[in-house]
Amino acid sequence: MTKFVYRMQNVLDLKLKLEEQAKIAFSLANNKLREEEARLQRIYDGIHIYENKLKKFKNGRLNLLEMKRCSEAIKIKKEQAEAQKKEIKIAERNVEIARKKLNDVMVERKTQEILREKAFDEYKKEFDKEESKVTDELVSYRYNGNGKETDNA
Fold this sequence. Notes:
Elements: H1 9-59, H2 64-144
Helix pairs in contact: 1-2
């Protein structure tokens, strides 16, 4: 019997490539989300630095110009934080889209693999049937002995 050849192997290969691409896209979206979260954290760190400076000025020698500058900087940083939160929401949405796409592609690939397994099982059944047929013919041939074997009782 011939070697097993899955006739839709090219479709399975395509599904595997699409899955790899989806994994890469998901990874990139996750990395982008982490970068956006890190930017937000840096903004919050900047806010804390300016708030600490402002507290020092309030507790120590009053420097109205520096206090005003710190207050303005805090205001700007808070605006930046709000804008960054929007960027994070967009990045989260992109991650979710990439996750859904990856999941869909994985389901398609698994479906193709199941079809391949079923085709291989059918191939094995046919092979076993063919092997059984050959064995039966061989046993029948030996038993009959081409008519030369007779009962000598």
